Amino acid sequence: MAKATNTELVDLLGEKFGEQLFDVSEPYGLLTFSTNKDKVIDVLSFLKENGKINFNFLTDITAVHYPEKEKIAVVYHLHSMVSGIRVRLKVFLHENDPRLASATVLWNGANWMERETYDFFGVKFEGHPDLRRILNVDDLPVHPMLKQYPLEDPNRVDKKDEYFGR
Amino acid sequence: MTHNQPVYTDNDPQDGLVTLNLGPTHPATHGVFQNILQMDGERIVSGVSTIGYIHRAFEKIAEHRPFYQITPLTDRLNYCSSPINNMGWHMTVEKLLNIQIPKRVDYLRVIIMELSRIADHIICNTIIAQDTGATTTFLYLFQYREHIYEIFEEICGARLTTNIGRIGGLERDFNEVAFAKINKFLKEFPVALKEFESLLNRNRIFIDRTKGVAEVTAENALSYSWTGPLLRATGIDYDVRVSEPYSSYQDFDFEIPVGTSGDVFDRYLVRNEEMWQSVRIIEQAIEKLKSEPKGIFHADVPDFYLPGKEEVYNNMEALIYHFKIVMGEIDAPKAEVYHAVEGGNGELGFYLINDGGRSPYRLHFRRPSFINYQMYAKMSEGMLLSDAIINMSSLNIIAGELDA
């Protein structure tokens, strides 16, 4: 099968989901778009099961915290081994109530990826069979990758940006 | 079940099951992670995997380090083939910065990466043999890993956590001794690998222990997001080097070995064949280097390439660029980039979001061991304990890559 192009893909997805997909861009050739949180499983299963595009492989799930927008973005990387292209799907959640449907219904491999995302960002994946912390200890009170938790002792002064003219 | 306490046998004696703690520090796990198994005699009824014993918060640390200081963090992911991680990281940043790398540097990198792939596969395959009781083969081939480390030592000064290369190229050219060692390795290793294969490939005991153990279907492997030799052993010819060539892999002629049943024996065969292919790639790279202009070991990008110390002390421009790079004043575009390389265990991906600051806004490692390992407890159900041990060796779980 010939390599499908991103334009074909955008047309196909636009036909199916219309306004539900937005923020379409192509950084470094990797098609990126966002969707609403209640649409995520629909979009993922369309991508996975549509015979034309066939994104059968879940490469990765992770999240990014944007404190100034009060958002947490959950990022999916999918790969179509048939047509050899990747897509990136983002879902923006409010940081106070990060809930999202679990992708474990589509891929078994989503299990630990979502546990990792939960562990570090506190995103609660609804329908996940076993949503526990995975790398951190069970009684850790915080989700450490959120930006409000500093890495080092905040009282350290030798690494402040002002000393570097920034 | 708490995270850091062993589970004691307090089961109901009626069901006759025994709880077994495999790990966290069990010699057969080859790394620090725990499996709490419910045993019915020698057979595993169910298992729970606990990981995270060497979690070092690399993704958090990376948000506070300039790009060039993240390379040593990647060393410690899959520490059996750290040069691949180093190169993968450098290529991610180069992709972000749109740096064109000269062909000669690409070929030098290919040599380094393929040597580390061989080192990684040597570890895995000899350990499988070791866990089936074949100590001879382990000792036989393992010394070639030492020879590979000597080559790395010649190239970069370090052996295990190599920190090879810079953003934009390599920190120094290969010297004559390095090429001599590589050529010596290319002459001697195939002989040893052939001997290794003749000791195991048709060995009745080895085949009895590995064939049909932990078979995985292609559908299951895809559903669990397996990559690398494990996926290829199930019959799917996915290899990042071919599907999305990086570092000029498209210039090389090599094959992707695949298996059929995805069992331990197939994984062993796939890894062995990959070592042959790696030797082939290195030979081609040495040949291609002859027609490239000598002495080029980095791209001409002074804004991003950290200059050598000697230049910094003697040359005004180098000093300025050194200062700017170390202080993090490089103009990196605000963008996000995903770059994958074929690591020893599968697709090693770097998802980098840059906001124009000194360090990444977010860096996520897609670690193949972490993703490959999640099927382990499920696979072990109904398996004999001794088979589960061999299965774990053949998954080649590296604790550093598991936990990040």
Automatic annotation (TrEMBL), chain A:
Which N-terminal residues, if any, form the signal peptide?
none
Which reactions does this protein catalyse? a quinone + NADH + 5 H(+)(in) = a quinol + NAD(+) + 4 H(+)(out)
- From the UniProt record, which GO molecular function terms apply? NADH dehydrogenase (quinone) (non-electrogenic) activity; NADH dehydrogenase (ubiquinone) activity; quinone binding
What Enzyme Commission number(s) does the record list for this chain?
7.1.1.-
InterPro entries for the chain = NADH_DH_suC (IPR010218), NADH_quin_OxRdtase_su_C/D-like (IPR037232), NADH_UbQ_OxRdtase_30kDa_su (IPR001268), NADH_UbQ_OxRdtase_CS (IPR020396)
Q: Which residues cross the membrane?
A: none
PROSITE patterns cross-referenced by the UniProt entry: COMPLEX1_30K
Task: State the Pfam families in the record.
Answer: Complex1_30kDa
Q: Which GO terms describe its cellular component?
A: plasma membrane
The record's keywords, sorted A to Z, are:
Cell membrane, Membrane, NAD, Quinone, Translocase, Transport
Q: How does it sit in the membrane?
A: Peripheral membrane protein
Where in the cell does this protein reside?
Cell membrane
Give all residue intervals belonging to the NADH:ubiquinone oxidoreductase 30kDa subunit domain: 35-153
How would you summarize the oligomeric state and partners of this protein? Answer: NDH-1 is composed of 14 different subunits. Subunits NuoB, C, D, E, F, and G constitute the peripheral sector of the complex.
Indicate the family of this protein: Belongs to the complex I 30 kDa subunit family.
Under the heading NCBIfam families, the entry gives: NuoC_fam
Q: What's the stated role of this polypeptide?
A: NDH-1 shuttles electrons from NADH, via FMN and iron-sulfur (Fe-S) centers, to quinones in the respiratory chain. The immediate electron acceptor for the enzyme in this species is believed to be a menaquinone. Couples the redox reaction to proton translocation (for every two electrons transferred, four hydrogen ions are translocated across the cytoplasmic membrane), and thus conserves the redox energy in a proton gradient.
Q: What is this protein called?
A: NADH-quinone oxidoreductase subunit C
**Organism listed in the record:** Pedobacter xixiisoli
UniProtKB/TrEMBL annotation, chain B:
The reaction(s) annotated as catalysed by this protein in its Swiss-Prot or TrEMBL entry are: a quinone + NADH + 5 H(+)(in) = a quinol + NAD(+) + 4 H(+)(out)
| SUPFAM superfamilies named in the record | HydB/Nqo4-like
Bilayer topology annotation: Peripheral membrane protein
Q: Which InterPro entries match?
A: NADH_Q_OxRdtase_suD (IPR001135), NADH_UbQ_OxRdtase_49kDa_CS (IPR014029), NDH1_su_D/H (IPR022885), NiFe-Hase_large (IPR029014)
Domain NADH-quinone oxidoreductase subunit D positions? 131-403
Any idea which UniProt keywords this protein has? Cell membrane, Membrane, NAD, Quinone, Translocase, Transport
Protein EC? 7.1.1.-
Leading EC class: translocase
Pfam families on file: Complex1_49kDa (PF00346)
Q: Which superkingdom, per the lineage? A: Bacteria
One cellular component term (GO) for this entry is: plasma membrane
Q: Where in the cell is it found?
A: Cell membrane
Q: State the function annotated in the UniProt record.
A: NDH-1 shuttles electrons from NADH, via FMN and iron-sulfur (Fe-S) centers, to quinones in the respiratory chain. The immediate electron acceptor for the enzyme in this species is believed to be ubiquinone. Couples the redox reaction to proton translocation (for every two electrons transferred, four hydrogen ions are translocated across the cytoplasmic membrane), and thus conserves the redox energy in a proton gradient.
PANTHER family xrefs: NADH DEHYDROGENASE [UBIQUINONE] IRON-SULFUR PROTEIN 2, MITOCHONDRIAL (PTHR11993:SF10), NADH-UBIQUINONE OXIDOREDUCTASE 49 KDA SUBUNIT (PTHR11993)
Protein family: Belongs to the complex I 49 kDa subunit family.
What this protein is called in its record is NADH-quinone oxidoreductase subunit D
- GN (gene name): nuoD
